[in-house]
User: What shape does this take?
Amino acid sequence: MVALGIIYGDIGTSPLYAFSAVIGDRPIEKMLVYGGISCIFWTLVFQTTIKYVWLTLRADNNGEGGVFSIYALVQRYGKKLIIPTILGATTLLADGIITPPISVASAIEGLNMVKGLEKTIVPGNNLTIGITIAILSGLFFFQRFGTQAIGKIFGPIMAGWFAMLLVVGGVQIIQHPDVINALNPAYGYDLLVHYPKGFWLLGAVFLCTTGAEALYSDLGHCGIQNIRITWVFVKTSLVACYLGQAAWLMHQGKPTLGTSNPFFEIMPSWFLLPSIVLATAATIIASQALISGSFTLISEAMNLNFWPRVAVRQPSDLKGQIYIPSINMILWFGCILMILYFKESAAMAAAYGFSITIAMMMTTLLLGYFLIYHLKWNQIAVIALLSVFVIVETSFFIANVAKIKERWMFLFFELSIFMTMYVWYFARKVNNRFTKFLDLGRFTSKIQELSADDAIPKFSTHLIYLTKANHREQIEEKIIKSIFSRKPKRADVYWFLHIQRTNEPYTLTYDINELIDDKVIKINVNIGFRVQPKTELYFKRIIKDLVANKELNLHIRPDGSTRYNNEPDFKFIVIEKFLSVENEFSLREGLLLKSYFYLKHMGQSDENAFGLDKSDVVVELTPLIYHPAENVELYRHKI
Assistant: This one.
């Protein structure tokens, strides 16, 4: 039930528009109808069944899937995998902009076939657009409350949806059993080779498998075996529905499809309105799955340093369920623009598929590394197997390139996502390259001397620095300067807290190194890439554990200065860099770093991102001098 409700929503609603997009306004003939069904069936076999359900689901990172999960598994095998990962994430996120409007619009347009509404609900008119916008707006508005309550009914609704596809398709097949011959791959070959401009119909055929990438991204919700077992039922229902549409089309007697949708035409007249209601519910569920997947994708991107830090909320106690307000607003705005620009589902179908094709191609590349280096499969066998997917996906890509003229404005959205990820990742690499580490042991005696110097006002009892140093004995130079420069910071205990992101999704462990007992302590907190950090909460929990185990003295002084409040005084120091005016840049460096600091300013502050209370935080600024100006000719004026 969970797999039906979450995993298969996107691919499960494709019969609403995929087959009608293949037929379009072309004359109805056997080569077109049977060829379209054959291509759809074998696409589901190769792309969805073999590539994703059988192969890609093996690339589970402790039960989690998605482009960032597979990247975490293979990143050490190739430094050039960054760009394919960013491209895959970008195009998958772009899928979340167009799938909700095309799905919901397709369902609402079905009302056009209800007697008495055929002149009111017209594809592309203001009423149809308004209803679609209202449904999508309501969907995005309720994201802030989480889906825990209504999520329980997703499974039963989708079970009813797939049962309906199986039954109505099966009825048509029983009436016209000859349609089963359409599964013969020869019909697909004839369509692509002999039908006029048949190859370009692959752009429409591809719509049948657009939910396959999301299938892998949602792996963590219900596990490999549940997805694989449920796919048997889902695929049977999908194929039955497509065959049913083809059977009706071949025997309906009209030369063209016109404004009819074969999906709703195969419904019994008495069941038409309930089928539209069920279709609308199914498309909302499919949209919800994509929206939740987009939140998860951005959360992983932030934790793996591919995206600026933004506010993340947990609307419920459900593990892994998050809400990102800024992404919710972007997706909502993008979906509304899509429906206002394209107006009807047929126009959106003509522009759909380009992004997700690229996502699939990037997954194929990462999958190759996973099979060869992680699973240790025979390299020749892997190359031979993946070559089949490369040929199929390249064909789909070429066919979908023709859609660019229909979706040119959508490219700006994809480019902005790609550039955000590219700038953030590579600028942080530059930033980190200019972070100098020192041996902490050289300064421990000096820190101890400062702590005991009563002539210097005490800054706090516990002084905590967030550090990037992975090694026990190292610390950033800027932290040492912060402690001793200008006004030295005297404290009873100096803590150096390092947040280590792991390649596992839900890790949450810590270890401690005391360089000087009760004086200089370094903590490493290991956090999985799907966990939102609550650093201050973790730190205070660690303190509590240390005190309970009598490993730490909280320094309640006998001089009476703590008698009014014996709680320890915690101060977290966050050191932020800014771009120094002393720099001289090349064009690329300037754009990269200036864009990075602009994004950083637009994003969430470090204290919020790491889960620190503002009352306990002191922010210090330090300049980043990347390329200092040289050959400055300055002369003293002689009077």
In short: Strands lie at 437-439, 458-467, 474-476, 490-502, 508-516, 520-528, 570-579, 617-624.
